[in-house]
Amino acid sequence: MAETILRLQNISKYYYSDTSVTQALRKINLEFSMSEFVAITGESGGGKSTLLNMISGMDTFDEGEMYYRGQPTFQYDDQDWEEYRRNQIGFVFQDYSLINHYTALDNVLAALVIQGKDPAECKDEAMDYLEQVGLTGQAAQRASQLSSGQKQRLSIARALAKNTDIIVADEPTGNLDSETGQQIMEILERLSHQKLVIMVTHNYDQAAPYVTRRIRLHDGELVTDVPVNKRDENVNSDHQNPPKSENKTANNGKAKKKKQNMARFFALKNIKMQKGRAGFFFAFFLITAVVSFLFIGELLVYADDRITKEYDTSAYLQKNDKRLSVRHPDNSVLTEKDRAAIASVKYVDQVDLCDYANDVNYYIEKDKDYEVAYGSKERLISNVQDDSDEENDQGVRLLDKSHFMKSSTAITGEDLSAGRLPKERNEIVLYTSDSRKLNSEITCYFSSDNLWKEGTSCYQKLKIVGILKDNTKQVYFHPELCEMLTYGLDRFVVWTQFCWDSLYNQYNGTFKPAYVVVGDGLKKNQVRVSENYKIPSTGYGLIPNDLKKAFVGQGCIHIEQTKSGIDAELKDAIEQNMSAAGYEEDSSEDSEDGDNEDGIKFDIEYVEDFSKQGADFIEVSPAIYQKLRDYYNIGTTQASVYIANYSKTDKVISALKEKGYDAVSTLRVSSTRYMQDKVYKRLEVIGISCMILIILAILQILIVRSILKIKKKDYSVLRFMGMRRKQLCRITYQEMGVHGIAAVIVTLIVMLILRQAGVAFIRNMLFYYSIIGIVGFLAYNIILMLLTVFFFNRTLRTT
Description:
This protein is of the alpha/beta class. It is built from 22 helices and 34 strands. The strands form seven sheets. Strands 24, 25, 26, 27, 28, 29, 30 and 31 form an eight-stranded mixed beta sheet that branches. Strands 14, 18, 19, 20, 21, 22 and 23 form a seven-stranded mixed beta sheet that branches. A six-stranded mixed beta sheet has the order 6-7-8-3-9-10, sandwiched between helices.
């Protein structure tokens, strides 16, 4: 006698609407045993499918009780019914309910994997099930490519793979021709020798030769339950499936790992077998990652309020957010050792020991950097800013004020493609594609609105001795020229006296301040004045208006410490230099304003010809210039340090402080006053960036969630096969996680490639992507992906 596996006792089912109640089943009493092939028949709407859903656990009953292996099911919750469907019921549907983008083998493997088996270890078992239904040759074909009969046989193979006691079949031959339907009946009949097969059918005549029992329903009531085609064989207990509880593992860690492996199997299978859909998901996540990267970068860039401040050029003429001004705390001289120490700091690109020269403009290309105005001689250099008659008469118009001096201490010989570094004061290196310019001479003009009087400029004849490798407009000058143009600007002032009055034994004229450059052809104590100098009127007629009469014969040059003074240690060093050189100390009676200022003076001789320098420049002989250097032989005390990006300013300043240097950002020092329009612009950029990130998040959630709904049919199939809803959620998280992570990685790689390619916008933005920035970018994309999947998974509650 076969074991009774299912018993239905007074089962009733009702369907409720707003206006009526429909009874689908009424007081059904049935028993089912192993080794039965049961056909449930009846007209449409008679309750056949409802009864089948009750037996398979897909629907609940309202009255009565159902016993499985003698145990009541009234206490089952949702999880218990999931366990029941997964472990006890195999499904065969009229519409096949296959996962069409999976192969035949994958569909069977899916059933095995859901049971907790390793997909790598159960392929042979899956092939055995395919062999039982005659589909070995179609194992690698997608389910969508199979014929109707092959699809139904595959559905049976999948049910077999679940290895359950009960197989329920809902109209398994409804979509098949008679011959194929007969083949399906033969397969089900063969399976029923070891299992309980319950089938709903409208075509009992086709099933009659194979079933062992017929049940007929009418209007929800049982009207017929008769045995047919009685079998002589008994069920062998060895063929009965062991209780699933015997297969459960007590190791929660292993169970959790199996769940992760199961989710990974289905996630990767979906990506592999649905390349088009996977490509779309990846493309969408990639767009999201790229756009979010750019706008998060904008937020990082605009987090600093420097762009909202007005730049004051009085301290540092060159506006450069990458420039730092560095010195020793005691203002001592910087050496090559200091340069190397500063250059070793991370993010430091260049170190120029001649800091002040970095605020001097140079003009080296005629008709681009400067032009000769109105065809006149190059006799006066000025920064012409309008077309007044006075300025038009000045001769040379300075055009491009974007170029600032740098000394050759900022580069090495490795930066040159030809030639050498400057060794003499009048030598330079620059970039040119014309190698014939090497060793040629050019005229270069200089101006500095914050170091010299406004509108004051000078020029020098220079020789090109080296050609740079990199295509740049930057010219590098010898340090001595840089020092000459900025000598003593914060230490002392140079001035001269002229127009000697032998009657009163004094000089009637004073030229103060005078900017010193070395002139050609001058010897000993000779000095040359500019033809552009205008003699100030004293009102007494003591000084001739004619330069040739005023600057003739003897004169006197003074070097005075500035009123701001210098520290005692440096002052002692200067006095020692002065004493060692044998120079006369300047006295208060010779000082124009009568102050007792420390300094030196010595006699000079004005030559008869005049220079074409700016009005406030005097040309001196090399001997006089050397005296100046000997007197203030202090070297350079301040360096310009250029860093990779402004965002690294604080890190570099902190690192320099640890090495014993004082450093300030020239941009921060010079930017103090907020500009209202720029404040509004900054807030506007921040607001727009935040809004775009929010809109992007909403669009992704809505669009991707809508597309994911296409997968609900596949998920329904997996649910019928016994997969838990939580496991379905894990699959979606892992599948979308692969796309999201891949998109983030590709985005970062692309941005790094663009940086290496020299895209300035990306290069600048990446500097702001510190650890916090990268974490923010990753967090945004990961959280957005999780939210998208979360809202989709909420729709699975109805699956």
